Amino acid sequence: MSAGEKAxxxxxxxxxxxxxxxxxxxxxxxxxxxxxxxETRGKARGAKEKTKDTFKH
Length: 57
Prior knowledge:
Elements: H1 3-26, H2 29-56
């Protein structure tokens, strides 16, 4: 996995988790859902890159 893609995936996960928790704390369901989606997208990106690496070697 390239370092840049790994960083993007981790950043999406961290930001998504923060947005989700902030949305929950202030009672904003829309922000909570958007944060969860961003976190999931980051996890999917990380899994995709790991799969690419598996088939390269």
